Amino acid sequence: MEHPDDPIDESTQTNLLLMDGFSDDSSPPTPRFLQDQSSYKYVKWVPVPVRRFCRFAVRWAQGPDPPQPYTITPFLPIIQELPIRWLDRYIPKRRHRIALLILYYFYWLLTFALVLRESTFATEIEGWGAPGNIGCGNTYWVPGNRCGLNGNECRPFNGSGFAFRCPANCASVMVLNPRAVGAQEIIYKPFVIGGPSQDSPPIYRGDSFICGAAIHAGIIDNAKGGCGVVTLVGEHSNYPSTKRHGIESVGFDATFPSSFSFHTATSCEAKDARWSLLFVSLTYTILLSLFTTSPALFFFSIFTGLFTHVGLASDPPGHSSMAGLISNILGKFLPAAFCAFVMYQYMGVRRALAGLTAQVEKTIFWLGGCWVGALSNYTFEWIPIQRLNAHDIKQQPGAKLALALIVIFLALIVIKQVFFFQREGRLVCYLGIYGIFISAILLSLIIPGLSLRIHHYILALLLLPGTSMQTRPALVYQGILVGLFINGIARWGFDSVLQTPAALQGDAPNYSALPRISQPKIQLGEDVSRISFSWLSPPEPFDGISVLVNDVERFRGYTDEGFAGDKRFVWRRDPKKDEPEYFRFAYMQGSQSWDYTRAGIWERNGSWTEMSPGPSKMKSRGLNEAVLLTA
Hints:
Helix content is 39%, strand content 17%. It is α+β, with helices and mostly antiparallel strands.
């Protein structure tokens, strides 16, 4: 066995320049360990085993010489290449193929448009007219004090209604931050309060999601959407909690000034065509995948088709008319098409699809993965992570475990992809690319006043270069990432990757200062009972106090209104009302209310239950389309 200190054999030396003829030195060769040390004379502090490992890692990362690029050899090529042979046999000329492709696009567009057009129609309801489109989060009443003092900005409370139409899948729309209902805080469930009781029709609190309540009441179907008539019925008490049609409603045992119900005797037919359109889009994309060998034609056709399908059918953004929806999607498509060109040309899509003749495998792995990503509002709905930010992961049940499993799964994929890149001799280059990505992310984290948010489309763009090879796993990964990009842009658009803390926070608690409320004074009487609250003057920069009673603002006082206006609040109730009442307090700064306290309870028996420490947030969610309806 060769000793580590033996002289290096001359046969292993480079012959680029023969030095023996120019040297008079006849001394013995330098031992190997001294040669190793001389080559690292500037890093002598690095231990020899570490140096040797680093040299080995560098040589390994450079890959074999020559590189060994991966290509997919089709299973059963006689079957997978059959569509190509049919084209070569029956349509050999290029101009005929172009004409056939144009005709194919025309019928694809025509079929999609006709099915989509049918979904825009709904039968008129006698006495109410044609139903109007509303979003899954539309409601009559928004939380907190945005309806104004005594809810006057959300009037009328009764006597009006309208014919509505809801899209499909509204049962999945939920509140993503705590929403106060009495002493409860509702999160990660549809915001539906009330429902049918044993001896009364379904009545829902005015701030319930109308479409979610319609599903709960059985007026519409979650899978298909539908239409109906909703009417305001005014003040109501004791909203029951029931579970119906996959939605568990929230109970509320006090009085609320605005409530609504549904007409059950009306007849209305309206259908969300997303499942019919899914069949159309699947059929045309599969046929195109099987009979297309051009990677550019395949990719850009699929990208355009799926972008249109997501934006108009499977996960459309909020809209009030079809014209507005089409305008929205066209505005997003132009920049998305530029991103598609970059993905194809520079991020590995062309390399993965070029020369691929495994038509069936391409359809199953790449196109199938793309559909999984594009339909992520269905395929990944079961994962308990609604938004990829620290606040949501911390508060959502099961999110930490799900994120840990996802990270482990992604780490295994990365390790496998590293070995593939090493065999192709491209590992060093891609390590440099991802080094730049990681550096940019770290730099974004230290920018003052801005926070990093990883959206669907950002995640796809970050990971796509790692799929730049022609292997079966890479086809699946690449398809899923392209689909996620399509879904993210078509549904939400190009939201900024760097956002202000306020934009990221949404309706989450601000953790602002909370009013310090003294022990209330309670006077119980036969005709009327009173509870009186007092507090210290608001600290800077606050200038007022807002008080919610049963989730409705009943008092708003400011420091410049004098003692009676900002330091004392009296509430009266009928002793015959056998129900509790819930009080929350918040500081005001101009017209803006900050965090409300948790609920203090004036119990049925007249006693007072002190509020728990900490805030409860009462503002409405813009992202969930909590839109105020006026009738």
